[in-house]
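DM from R.C. (forwarded with permission)

"hey, sorry to bug you on a friday — could you get me a structure for this? deadline for the figure draft is monday and I only need the backbone to look sensible"
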Amino acid sequence: MPGAVRRPTQAQGRRPEPEQPAYPTLTISFLRGDAEDPYCVQYPDRFYAQFTAPSTRDPRIGRYEDGCSILVVPATFDAYWGSPAARWMRQKARGAGRAGYRFAHIAREDYLDDIYAINTSMPERQGRPMAEAYLHRPAPQRPLPDFPCAHHALRGYGVLRDGHLYAYAWVYVIGEMCLFSTILGHGEHMKAGIMSMLIVEVVRDLMTTADLRFAMYNLHASGGDGLRFFKEQMGFQPYRVTWTMGDGTDEERRAARARAAEAARRSAPWVRRTGERTGME
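My reply, with the result:
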């Protein structure tokens, strides 16, 4: 009818839904409580809460669920090492070995000076200044405890030459996966392939000792193009991950998360189609 005012339909009145990349999907279990050790509960609880905390982009999605950088570990180390796609990785790791570097389990307190030298060897990494905490000599800490469960532990790994540490990683083992929590190399030795050696040997070790199925290196988009290239050459790719506890509580946890996400979505400021956010600080 001429002059009539059209009312918006229900679909027209809805807030626009954020678009998400179509990443392949994975389900990874933290194997919560698979042994009678406190860390079999503490680590799954800690990382489940961290990974599934609502994303600032979309509260329906966890902070570390969409676009996680994951290495899907093959059934054998030879399949990982010998893959045609791993040629670059093999060249780098072999080059480090020929240059005299070697992989080792390390205790943090044995290499405080070397860790400080690594941390301060580059003023910036991935285009960002080093965080203040890395600019001071590390303070002594208690040694790591003995972890009786191979599926829930914190491990220290390093690359050494002539008794000095030139790369290190603190790696959490949480159920089926491991997380590279901290991984750094000395700026003057990076071209020698020490970081490739470090990741390759961590994967080899945890495949043997912890039945490793997945490794995580932050979000795939974290860092610059160089870091993403490195991750991909080491076998990491972006995935949409469903994190599970594996203790019979997953359905209840998913329902609670869905209710919380819906409440957050309803209370969040409207996001315009242009991407401009209103009412935000």
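R.C.: lifesaver. The mean pLDDT is 88.
me: no worries. DSSP finds eight helices and ten strands in the chain.
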